[in-house]
Automatic annotation (TrEMBL):
Broad class of where this protein is predominantly found: cytoplasm
SUPFAM superfamilies xrefs: Adenine nucleotide alpha hydrolases-like (SSF52402)
Keyword Chloroplast: no
Alphabetized UniProt keyword annotations: Cytoplasm, Iron, Iron-sulfur, Metal-binding, Oxidoreductase
Binding-site list for [4Fe-4S] cluster: 130-131, 213, 216
Pfam families registered for this protein in UniProt: PAPS_reduct (PF01507)
Subcellular location: Cytoplasm
Cell wall biogenesis/degradation listed as a keyword: no
Taxonomy of the source species: Bacteria, Bacillati, Actinomycetota, Actinomycetes, Mycobacteriales
Catalytic activity, EC: 1.8.4.10
Name assigned to this protein: Adenosine 5'-phosphosulfate reductase
Listed cofactors: [4Fe-4S] cluster
Function: Catalyzes the formation of sulfite from adenosine 5'-phosphosulfate (APS) using thioredoxin as an electron donor.
Location of the region described as Disordered in the Swiss-Prot/TrEMBL record: 222-244
Length: 244
């Protein structure tokens, strides 16, 4: 696990310009948004050690791709204190299997401290605030040391992600955002898992197609939106990490 404190190397204007140039390459067909290897090669060329790859440890598809593009790449895991045991086991397996450097982002308060300050089970009463404290703030603090972050969101996952670009400037966190597998459909995604023997969280095989914190994740009903098991029974659909 990393103990190195990163510092952002470029200012906001420069990062915004880099994101614009990258988006223009994609739009002009000079950078293929369906080719994660090309997008990650561009990322490594632009940012060197100044980018980090986010993983919720549902699977290691993005980790596998990133480790091939840049061995030793930083991989971010948000340790919320509410994860399934299977998710933590997948995290440990990823670290043992792939050439990556794990960077864990944690909330300032432990779950017990949060319960004392906010009342027990904040996730049930105000999931937006719970996600803010345990995900958004720790992520923002970690990303403050990087020029870019790489995520595994895909357009087919939900209506809120249907227009997600391959490269953009993330206004919420103030850095460049790259989504290398954004154009992959489910068949292409599964093909990569099968072809590469990629690690997958055991909960996926138990009927959880979208995995978050244990108290806020349920099995979706047959035929329903794969993300409908997240914050089931509420109107919440995103935790606030992917606002752009």
């Amino acid at each position: 696990m990393s103990t190195v404190v990163h510092e952002r190397l470029r200012d906001t204007d420069e990062l915004r310009n880099i994101a614009g140039r990258g988006a223009a390459l994609v739009e002009g067909g000079n950078l293929d948004e369906t080719d994660p290897a090309a997008l990650l090669a561009w990322t490594a060329e632009q940012f060197g050690d100044g980018f980090i790859v986010a993983s919720n440890m549902q699977d290691a598809v993005l980790v596998d791709l990133a480790a091939r593009a840049k061995p030793g790449v930083d991989v971010l895991f948000l340790e919320t204190g509410y994860h399934f045991a299977e998710t933590l086991g997948t995290r440990d397996a990823v670290v043992s299997t792939y050439d990556v450097n794990l960077v864990e982002a944690r909330a300032e308060a432990s779950v017990a401290e949060q319960d004392a300050a906010e009342g027990k089970d904040l996730f049930a009463r105000d999931p937006g605030r719970c996600c803010g404290l345990r995900k958004v703030v720790p992520l923002k603090n970690t990303l403050a040391g990087y020029d870019a972050w790489v995520t595994g969101i895909r357009r087919v996952e939900s209506p809120t992600r249907a227009q997600a670009p391959a490269i953009s400037f993330d206004e919420g966190f103030g850095l460049v955002k790259i989504n290398p597998i954004v154009a992959w459909d489910d068949d292409r995604f599964q093909q990569y898992i099968d072809d590469r023997g990629v690690l997958v969280n055991p909960l996926v095989f138990d009927g959880y197609p979208s995995i978050g914190c244990a108290p806020c994740t349920a099995k979706p009903l047959p035929g329903s939106d794969p993300r409908s098991g997240r914050w089931a029974g509420s109107t919440k659909t995103e935790c606030g990490l992917h606002s752009s």
